Amino acid sequence: MKVKHIMRSRVIAVKPQEEVSTALKIMNENRINGTPVVDDNNKLLGIVVKADIYRFLIAPGHYESCPVDWVMTKDVVTAHPEEDLITAARRLREKMSLHFLW
Length: 102
Hints:
By secondary structure, the chain is of the alpha+beta class. It has helices at residues 20-29, 50-57, 85-101, and strands spanning 34-38, 44-49. A two-stranded antiparallel ribbon has the order 1-2. The chain starts with 19 loop residues before the first helix and ends with a helix. The model has no long low-confidence stretch (mean pLDDT 90).
């Protein structure tokens, strides 16, 4: 099976300067837990997920009006639509394993 068989074709994205509250609203309206962060040319800059936003908001001094750029993950693992799903999953697992070692 290829990545394209499980990916969404209509991508819902946010801009880095948008407020965290706006990103949460977009995710809730679309019933998604995360969304890519893109620039004005739709170049991928990162990803933001609800769990990261919630962890961000419980820290003192962090507010819903802060920009997505403050909470997004910038080191994103990507896959090509034609890539084998198992290969992409292994790369993601390796990346996550390295992340949790630190």
